[in-house]
Amino acid sequence: MWRRLGTLVSGSGQNTGLYARLPKRRRSCPPVSGGRATIFALSSGQGKCGVAVIRTSGPASGPAVLGLAALRALPQPRLAKLRLLKHPVSSEPLDRGLVLWFPGPHSFTGEDCAEFHVHGGPAVVSAVLGALGGVPGCRPAEAGEFTKRAFQNGKLSLTEVEGLGDLIHAETEAQRRQALRQLQGELGQLCRAWGETLTTALAHLEAYIDFSEDDNIEEGVLEWVDGTVQGLREALEAHLQDARRGQRLRSGAHVVIAGPANAGKSSLINLLSRRPVSIVSPEPGTTRDVVESAVDIGGFPALLSDTAGLRDSPDLVEREGVRRAQERLAEADVVLALVDATDLASDASRRFLETVVTPGDPSASPRILLVLNKADLLPKGGAPGGATLPPHLLLSCKTEAGLEAVLAALKKELAAVCGDPTVGPPVLTRARHRHHLQSCLEALRGYGRSRARDLALAAEELREARRQLGHLTGQGRPDQILEVIFRDFCIGK
Questions:
Q1: Is the pLDDT of residue 343 over 50?
Q2: How far apart, in whole angstroms, are the C-alpha atoms of residue 88 and residue 86?
Q3: What global pTM score does this model have?
Q4: Which of 138, 306, 475, 484 lies in disulfide reach of 470, CB 3.0 to 4.6 Å?
Q5: Biggest CA-to-CA distance, the chain
Q6: Which region holds residue 360: left if phi is over 0, alpha if psi is between -120 and 50, else beta?
Q7: In a 3-state reduction of DSSP, which class is residue 176?
C-alpha cells in the first residue's frame, strides 16, 4: 500500500519505544566542553532484525566510541572494527559488533559521528542505547535531528533535505526517482543559479544608481539589467507552468471511480486495491460516502476514490453521497468512468455518459477513462449496444477479464498527469516551492512596474526576488518552516 511511513516517532515528534525507557536524567545531560549536545538514535528501524545500526552525532561521539568499545585511541576513520561492546560505567558486556568512526566535517552531519552495528534483538538495542545514555553529554535524538544538523552545518540544502525525506517515504518507483533527483540537488542548483543572476543584475543596477552621473558607468547597463530580468521572468513562468506534476507525484494523483448506481464501482476499487476496501452489494446505492485507497499503478502513486452512484434519490443520505461524489469529480486528476455494459440504454447510463464523459479531448481536465463493466454478461462475441459510444475498455470485475488493459490505460493516464521524473528540468514537489517561486516572479514583475518611476524601488523588487529564492533553498530560513519540514522525519534520520 502506498502511504507515508513513520517509524519510532509519534505524530507529535515525541520519542517512543526504546527511547522512552531511558532515564530522564541521562536524556538531559549537558553538552561536553560547552558545545552542543551529542545525539544518538537507532537508525535502522525498530523490531527484531539481523543487524541494528545505532548512530551518534556531536562532540561526545569520540568518548562514546572509546567508552563502549574499550579502545585507547579512536579507530581509523570509515573503517569497520569488530569489538566487544561494554557498558562504559559497569563494564558489563553488551554485544559483539562493528564500530565505525566518522570524524567531522567529513560526515553526514558535518560533526563527529559514530555508528555501532549490533545484533538486532530488542534487548541488545535497548542495552546499547542505555549505555550511550550514560555517556556525559549524550541524549536521544529528536525526529529528524541528524538531518537538521546536516542542514545547519551546510551539508544539505533545504530542497535536498526535502528530497531525502521524500526518498525515505517513497513507496513507488516514480516517487523514488523524483526524490533521488531532488536529493542530488538539481532544484537547489537551479535556484542558486537564478539567485546568482539576480545578484549580478542587482549589483549593476545599484552601481548605476550610485554612479550614473560619473563617467565610470558603461553605456547600456540598464538595458542589460532589463534584459536579464526579462529572461529570468520568462524562465520562472515556464517552470511554474508544470501542471503541478511534481506535487501530484509526491502526494499521489487523485483517481475518482464514478458512474451510475450498481455499475460495479466498489468491485473495481477492491480489484485495483487487491483487498476489500468497499462493501459490495447487488443493491443499488450501497456506497453512501467516499471510500479511498492508496495504490501503486505501474510505479505511479494513485489515491483511488470510490463514490456514490450518480442518480436522483429521495434518500437524504444518498443525496449527500451524490453531492460528495460530484465534488470529488471536480477535484479529480483522472476519472475512471464506469458503466454497466448491459445497461447502456438506461436513463442513468445515458445521462452519465452525456454529462461526465467528454470524448475526443485527451487534454481535458480531468482526464476520462471510460470502462464498461460486466463484460462477462454480454453475449459471446457480442459488443455493447450504443453506436455513439466514445473509446472505451471492456472489463469484468467478476472474472478479471480486461483488467490488464485497464491497468495499462490507467498507467498511461497517470504518466501524463505526473510526468516522467527523470527527464526535463527539476520539478516543484511542494506547495512551499511554488509559493516562493511565485513570489519571486511577482517581485520581478514589480521591477518592470517600478523601473520607469523609481530605480530605488525597482532595486528593492530585485532584492525581494532574491530573498524569495533564498527562502526556497533555506537561506534566511524561518524556524517555523523548518519545524514543519523536519517533524516528518523518523527518529534516527
A1: yes
A2: 6
A3: 0.72
A4: 475
A5: 91
A6: left
A7: helix
pLDDT in tens, 129-184: 999 998 999 999 998 899 999 998 989 888 898 899 889 888 899 889 999 999 98
Residue 51: enclosing H or E segment and its boundaries? strand 51-57
Cβ atoms of 239 and 290 within 8 Å: the answer is no
pLDDT (0 to 100) of residue 100: 96
Instruction: Quickly tell me which residue has 543572476 as its cell.
Output: 197
- Cell numbers 569489538: residue: 83
Q: Are 296 and 334 in contact (CB under 8 A)?
A: no
Given the candidates 3.40.50.920, 1.20.120.430, 3.40.50.1170, 3.40.50.720, the CATH classification of the domain at 173-242+428-473 is 1.20.120.430
Half-sphere CA count of 405, side-chain side, radius 13 A: 14
pLDDT, the chain, mean: 82
- Triad 14, 20, 26: Cα angle to 5°: 105
Domain 248-418 coded CATH 3.40.50.300: yes
Q: What are phi and psi of 283, to 5 degrees?
A: -80, 125
Grid coordinates representing 65 are 566510541
Q: How many residues would you count in the chain?
A: 493
Q: Quick one: residue 425, left, alpha or beta (phi over 0 = left, psi -120 to 50 = alpha)?
A: beta
